[in-house]
Amino acid sequence: MNRFICYILCGIALLFTACTDSKEKAATEPEIRQVDFVELTPQELKTMEIQLTAPGTQPIVSNIYLNGKVTSLPNLSASVSSNIEGKVEKVFVTKGSLVRKGQPLMVLSSMQLIELQNEYLAAKSEIDFYAVEFRRQEELLKNNVGALADFQVTEAKYNAAISREKALRAKLQLLDIDADQFKNPKISVITPSVTIKSPIDGYITELPVTIGMLASVQTKLAEIVDNNQLYAEIFVYEKDLDLITEGQEVEIDFINSAFENVMGKVMSISRAINTETRAITAFVQFSARKGDLVLPGMNVRAVVLNKEGTKGAVTVPVSALMKEDDQTYVFAGENKPNPQGKLKIVKYKVEVGSTSDTLAEIIFPNGTPPNIVVAKSNVMVLETQRRQMSGMNVGGE
Fold this sequence. Notes:
Layout: H1 2-28, E1 37-40, H2 42-47, E2 52-53, E3 60-72, E4 77-80, E5 86-91, E6 98-99, E7 104-109, H3 111-142, H4 148-174, E8 193-197, E9 202-206, E10 214-215, E11 222-225, E12 230-236, E13 249-253, E14 262-269, E15 280-286, E16 299-308, E17 314-317, E18 322-324, E19 327-334, E20 343-355, E21 359-363, E22 372-375, H5 379-390
Helix pairs in contact: 3-4
């Protein structure tokens, strides 16, 4: 029994000692006093390089970046092929060459061309023959000597020969061969080759040919693009659709090249949403700078000015914002020293609205304090001063 009473007395003594130590420890530890402001003299602010500025009320103008790619205009790009089958004999250009409309690109030798010219000569001879026979039958019919049936047969053959000659002449013209050189079959020269010429001004972007290869009418011999006028397909998502209008000027940024940015104009906007990308395509026409080889397929970015923000909203420099635990704060106060000659600068929690590269809209929970100025530089120095006034560890521990 005595032993049990001893245990109880020892426990009470230990408990009393712990409570006494706790009180003594609490008495020796400094009390942390939370404050949400700092007080500094103008000279101290100057020494800390802290600048104060009055908030503005201008709307935010920010850049919206829309991705896309370069595409050539249909009438300013050409896929070159031959109108007749032939073998590549000579090539006068290389990939990347600047060519002018009508400039020779290559020469094809063609058996079909030789046969076509031979057919034209035969058609010319038929016309000459049936022309004489037609006039003879016409004269016989006038003199009631010839038969009407013979005249009609001759007339039909004569007209068919004329049609055939016209068709063959048109084919030769497509191959840039003057059919008038065959007026006299005895001295006419058969051309064994055809020269392929550039249909537009531009740069050779593809040249998939080699000497000796056989080219059919389906063979692509070259690709030419006139990069003086190109357009970019820009992908616009629903949230940004109201920022794009036809006729609007936008800046084109060649994100993977060192080319300088150029200005373009929105030509048209697609009226359908791409089911895969969920984007709407805007077509922006632009001209590449002289010497810049901008080609279809290049990635670009359209820089669109976004004039947003509520009229009369408070705007401050982005440098005035301080992020802490997913919250945003600013240091602001009246630009008027107190009787002690110090400025009281309060740490305010704010909501951030529209932002640009330099400005941000801020919203005070209880309305904007009147006649305030905001610290726009070195706000972390002010936070350090506030923590020191609160007795907190500067590192935030």
